[in-house]
Write a structure and sequence with these properties.
The protein has 141 residues and is mainly α. It has one domain. Helix content is 77%, strand content 0%. The protein is built from four helices and no strands. Bound molecules: protoporphyrin IX containing FE. The site of protoporphyrin IX containing FE has 27 residues, from α1, α2, α3 and α4.
């Protein structure tokens, strides 16, 4: 079933909107949660746990199946497109793994550095995801 813009399947459009929605929530949380008290830290932690779980569900239900279908066909692993997917999958998997680690262990040493790295990986993964989406469904060229 075709999605909202008539080019990609509905699940892919949904994946895009959900991931962009998660990004907006992430940015709002980071912008407005000044973590100065224990209460603020716990609120920030709860929000990040929700964002990570949502990201995990979207990845598992929409992207992993698409990834498996793509690589179950005979593809040139060194083509630009395959490398783009592999790089996106790797950065995305690390972003999620780091997010889960932060969600589970609130008292990580050098927590700020972990958080910044996770955010950087997340932004990188979402940018590559957006390029993938535009490339796969013919929005580019
Ligand atoms: C933080 C983690 C991740 C983010 C933010 C992210 C973001 C995105 C976005 C925005 C898209 C375009 C929308 C779509 O087509 O559904 C996308 C597509 C895709 N992603 Fe991810 N992604 C992440 C993790 C992963 C992982 C771990 C994998 C591989 C196991 C993966 C594989 C794919 C594939 C194959 C597509 C194309 C889906 C399609 O056929 O439409 N992504 N990603």
């Amino acid at each position: 079933m075709l999605g909202i813009f008539g080019k990609a399947p509905l699940t892919s459009d949904l994946g895009l909107f959900l991931e962009l929605g998660i990004l907006v929530v992430l940015l709002i949380v980071l912008r407005f949660h000044k973590i100065k008290t224990k209460q603020a830290l716990s609120r920030h932690h709860r929000a990040m746990v929700v964002v990570t779980i949502l990201g995990f569900i979207v990845t598992l239900s929409i992207m992993v199946p698409s990834f498996l279908i793509f690589f179950s066909a005979k593809v040139d692993l060194l083509s630009f497109f395959a490398l783009l997917i592999i790089f996106h999958a790797l950065t995305g998997a690390f972003a999620l793994a780091f997010g889960i680690r932060l969600a589970i262990n609130v008292r990580l040493k050098r927590q700020r550095r972990w958080m910044r790295t996770t955010m950087f990986l997340w932004l990188f993964a979402i940018t590559l995801g957006l390029i993938l989406f535009l490339q796969i469904y013919g929005y580019l060229l």
